[in-house]
């Protein structure tokens, strides 16, 4: 059972009564739309006030958040700050620092044949947005999209994951206390289905492709744009030029953070034959250094979210040579950091996104074989490569397609607010973080202004004459030189 959170009113500091969740989903959307249409969310001052309130929420309730994340996923305090609280705070600070520039209309050039005139792109909020969050990073993957929605001047409905009940309950209690145009709807399939039946101006979904298709189909009925942050099997390529000790440490960190339940975690490794033995020797040492001889007792190692995922994961460990790990405990939902060497390409663990602490290693001849292997499968959310070979880096860049490409480290690209984060193909559509979040939740409205005097458009009005035709032909030829060539 989630905690009955006892929080304090952000304005008075006194103990606050528990907010009763409004279960009338259509009424929630109607109420938020009325708020948006009143114009209250549009001014820069309102947006800054909401972002600062969100920052205050995180700082006021840090210990509550730590406790909820521990209850849901056994996240340690350091990991909670590194991957959850700190990430949201950084996103808020970045938005506050750049909000004025993001909101400023941008001038664009006008073609000579339309002058005198001025043109600009004016960002405006979309309206009422829906954010459907997953369970694996239940704070950051709920609030980071919300930062973009608020910075862009929108109202929002937030749907946390029911699979992280403690964090969901905490967000449902706190967000309405601190924010003025945000509603939280808790629940599972029934509530999500009701939400998707409403008309929103944008839907932002993070999760798996199966549900992503349901979200997209529901959104299509109202022509609602969507951002789908999905997953996929993110590969790692390692060759003999890599610093293997560093590669092993970074690979172990990226794979086993949050017990592997990360959408951009390394899913499998493609290592060249000449580098295989070095990697196989270095990985167990790196894992032991991070989590000790018995990771079960480590304060830095998490647990699987529920029994269903635990059973699915333990069923994936039957093929390949067990290099380290393989220990599990259903009562604790504990699976040790597990590495499987020389895994067959047709193994069950290679057929689906693992989303857990199991790392298969496959051997390839060279970077070309690795690229062919990756390209024969769905486009991944992330592609990682540990190599100092410039040619290998270049061919990976040019011949593969992935949501993101990172050399010599996994996952850290999420910490760069100026890099858009998103997938391609089966790994998703659309992107966010930093200004990309602002753009995702904005309409970039083109605005053109042309004076009425002099009336330079008079030469294109009917009735047309030989003089007007000559003028138009000359203007077209100036704009499109190929049309002006004699045939």
How does this structure look, described?
The protein has 487 residues and is α/β, with parallel strands linked by helices. The chain contains 16 helices and 20 strands. Strands 10-13-14-9-8-15-16 form a 7-stranded mixed beta sheet, with helices on both faces. The chain has a 6-stranded mixed beta sheet with strand order 5-4-3-6-7-18, sandwiched between helices. α8 links the parallel β6 (202-206) and β7 (226-229). α2 runs antiparallel to α4 (77-103) and α12 packs parallel to α13. The N and C termini lie far apart (79 Å). Residues 1-22 have low confidence and may be disordered.
Describe the structure in brief.
The chain is an alpha/beta fold and 487 residues long. The protein has helices at residues 25-37, 44-60, 62-73, 77-103, 140-151, 165-178, 189-196, 209-220, 244-256, 273-291, 307-314, 367-375, 390-399, 434-440, 466-479, 481-484; strands at 106-108, 118-125, 128-132, 155-159, 182-184, 202-206, 226-229, 235-238, 268-272, 321-324, 328-329, 334-335, 338-341, 358-364, 382-386, 404-407, 421-422, 428-429, 431-432, 442-449.
